[in-house]
Write a structure and sequence with these properties.
By secondary structure, this protein is of the alpha+beta class. It folds into three domains: 108 residues, no CATH class; 93 residues, Jelly Rolls, CATH 2.60.120; 143 residues. 24% of the residues lie in helices and 41% in strands. An eight-stranded antiparallel barrel has the order 10-11-12-13-14-17-18-19. The protein has a five-stranded mixed β-sheet with strand order 1-3-8-5-6, covered by helices on one side. Helix 1 packs antiparallel against helix 2 and helix 1 crosses helix 6. The relative contact order is 0.09.
Length: 378
């Protein structure tokens, strides 16, 4: 019935290949896992400047993202079955426009998954030309409806930069600090805090091509705006090597655990927000009767308050971090995605230099973590 409804609607509109063919590929990948999604993704990637509505089979990349979120597939089926063809296209296009910038975030982060859970494979998108900002200036950005658009800005150290993007109107954008930060709204101030600050930007428009003018005003940076914690911190290899021992102490009884790969990136921003990003952190644990295999990705967001030169209070603030866990007990395997965002407040002691950070979380036991500053000069 689904395929008949898709075909009827397609025949009613000559420009509907993007969802008729793209969604057909999506449903085919549910019926036949490991099919042609990656091939279509290569085609999508090869023609990033094309509008979604001009695409055909390669639109499956969008459907992989759009329809695999919880509840999305059911809602899509209900929309198709309840709407006449003309209204269906209008309804779909309206919803696509509302979420296009979120699709761009996932596209640039390579986090789009096929219905079977595998990451959709396509080459890394060449980085847009980097625009370096060293003082007060104005930058223009153009967003085209339903077309992949990105930009990179680098703010030179030695200044704070006040940003004014004016009213959003039909123009939407999200900013991500560094190369793997959480996507957030445009900051109103960028504190460089002794090092160049880099931002990825995704741009979207819904109804028409729109140009956004960004006014940048440079001013002197104050040391009070730049606590040592501010910046990006990559967990060190020796620190990651302590993860298996924690899993053994808190996880499967009498298990042997190991770190397979991946890492974590810790980010403190000058506006007292932050996040811990899991970079496909992969661990396994095995006992005589039980084994577990987990891969963690996404970001746990937090806010932070400096209590003293050596103590910080961190409060959970949501995020999208989760762990895909496969547990086998006596030969029976269960897989699930477990959210890792949680809630709570923790007091952490620390030692910080321009290049290194040591954190200690105190509870029933003391857990220590070590990091090196991202981009620190040797």
């Amino acid at each position: 019935m689904v395929m008949k409804t898709w075909e009827d609607a397609r025949l009613s509109s000559g420009d509907a290949d993007w969802w008729a063919e793209g969604s057909a590929e999506f449903f085919a990948s549910i019926a036949y896992p490991g099919g042609m999604t990656d091939v279509d993704a290569q085609a999508f990637h090869a023609n990033e400047t094309a509008s979604l509505f001009s695409r055909s089979h390669d639109a499956v990349v969008f459907f992989d993202w759009y329809a695999t979120a919880p509840g999305r597939l059911k809602g899509l089926l209900e929309t198709v079955n309840d709407k006449p063809a003309g209204a269906l296209l209008v309804d779909l296009q309206e919803d696509v426009g509302a979420h296009w910038v979120e699709f761009e975030e996932a596209y640039f982060d390579h986090t789009i998954r096929s219905p079977g859970g595998a990451i959709v494979s396509y080459p890394s998108t060449p980085a847009p030309d980097t625009q370096r900002i060293t003082g007060s200036t104005t930058k223009n950005f153009t967003a085209t409806p339903y077309v992949i658009r990105g930009a990179i800005l680098e703010f030179a150290e030695g200044h704070a930069y006040d940003l004014d993007g004016g009213a959003e109107d039909d123009f939407k954008w999200k900013w991500s600090q560094g190369d793997a930060g959480t996507w957030v709204s445009m900051p109103t101030v960028v504190h460089t805090c002794h090092q160049t600050q880099r931002y990825r930007i995704v741009l979207a428009a819904k109804n028409r091509e729109v140009t956004k003018r960004l006014r940048v005003t440079a001013r002197d940076e104050h040391e009070a705006d730049c606590p040592c914690l501010v910046g990006g911190w990559q967990q060190t290899g020796p620190s990651l090597a302590r993860v298996p021992a924690r899993l053994q102490a808190r996880g499967i009884h009498n298990a042997q655990c190991q770190l397979v790969g991946g890492g974590t990136l810790l980010q403190f921003t000058a506006d007292h927000n932050g996040g811990e990003t899991y970079q496909d952190l992969h661990t396994t644990c095995t006992s005589q009767t039980t084994s577990s295999d987990g891969v963690s990705h996404g970001t746990r967001s937090f806010t932070w308050t400096l209590d003293s030169p050596t103590q910080v209070t961190m409060s959970s603030a949501g995020g999208d971090a989760s762990s895909h866990v496969k547990v086998t007990v006596h030969g029976r395997t269960v897989e699930q995605d477990a959210p890792m965002t949680g809630a709570g407040v923790g007091v952490v002691t620390f030692r910080c230099t321009r290049s290194d950070l040591h954190l200690e979380f105190h509870g029933a036991t003391t857990d220590a973590f070590d990091y090196t500053r991202v981009g620190a000069h040797p």
